[in-house]
Amino acid sequence: MHLDHTSHGPAAVSADAARPDGTRRALRIGLGGPVGSGKTATVAALCRTLRDRYSIAVVTNDIYTREDAEFLLREAVLPPERIQAVETGACPHTAIRDDISANLEAVEDLEDTVGPLDLILVESGGDNLTATFSRGLVDAQVFVIDVAGGDDIPRKGGPGVTTADLLVINKTDLAPHVGSDLGRMTRDAAQQRGPLPVVLTSLTSGEGVGPVADWVRGRLAAWTA
User: Fold this and answer.
1) Alpha-carbon distance values, 11 to 165, 224, 225 (Å)
2) Residue 70: how many CA atoms within 13 Å on its side-chain side?
C-alpha cells in the first residue's frame, strides 16, 4: 500500500501507530530522492538539530554497501547503536515500497534495542523521480532534489516530486554556478504540488536545514498530541 495523499494535514498516521505492547511507536519519516541530491547530508543535519530534544534513530539504504550509514557514523550525528544500514541488493525503491521487510525489521529492531524513540528517519538509496515509500513503512515522505540536477526537475514531476509530503530543493547555493533559476523551480514545484509544501535549503551553513527541521517538528507535535 502506498502513501495516501488525499489528506495534506500533518496529523495523518499509519494504522499501526501503536507497538505490540500498546505504547506509541516512533514517528517514521522517509527521505528519498536522486543520487547526490543531499539526502544523507539532510539526515545528518536533522540529527544534529533535533537530537537534543528528541530521541532519534536512522535506517539507511544502499544497494551493496553501508556507505551512507558509515558517513553518519563518521560524523557522529548519533550514537552508533542508533544507526542501522540495509543493503537492498536491488533497485532502491524495491526495499522502500515493494518489499519493505528488511527496512521494517530494522525499524522495529531499533525500537526494541534503543527505544523508546520519538523519530526514525528512513533514508532511501539514490533513486529516480518515481520513488515513493510504502505507507506500511513510513508515516510521511520527504523528497530531496538539488539545483545541480537541472531547474526543469520540478516541471518534469513524477510521484516523488508531486506527492511527497515535503519537497526539498537543496543546494541553492549552487544555483548561480549551474545556471538554475530558483524562482522557476519554486513556481514549477508549486504548480505540480498544489497545497503540499516546498522548501529551499543549502546545507553549507548550520541553519540551512531549518525549514525541514521545522516541518519535522510539526509532524512530531501532531504525532504526540
Assistant:
1) 12, 10, 9
2) 5
Tell me the helix, strand and coil percentages in the chain, rounded to 5: 40, 20, 40
Q: Which residue's entry shows cell 560524523?
A: 75
pLDDT in tens, 187-198: 999 999 999 999
Q: Which residue spans within the chain are E strands per DSSP?
A: 27-32, 56-62, 83-87, 119-123, 140-146, 166-170, 198-200
| Amino acid, res. 106 | A
Q: Residue 107: is its pLDDT beyond 60?
A: yes
pLDDT band at 143 (very low <50, low <70, confident <90, very high): very high
Does the predicted TM-score (pTM) go above 0.85? yes
For 31, phi then psi, to 5°, come to: -120, 120
**β-bridge pairing 140-146 and 119-123:** unpaired
DSSP letter at 201 equals -
Let me know if 15 is exposed, middle or buried by CB neighbors in 10 A (0-12, 13-18, 19+).
exposed
Please calculate the CA angle 10-135-105 and round it to the nearest 5 degrees.
Answer: 120
Residues 158 and 169: their CA atoms lie apart, in Å, by 15
- Read off the pLDDT of each residue in 42-58 and give the average, rounded to a whole number: 98
Opening angle at CA 166, ends 63 and 45, nearest 5: 65
CA 8 and chain centroid, separation: 17
Mean pLDDT estimate for the chain: 89
Q: What is the CA radius of gyration of the chain?
A: 16
Q: Which residues, in sequence order, are CB contacts of 39 under 8 Å at separation 6+? A: 31, 32, 33, 68, 123, 124, 126, 144
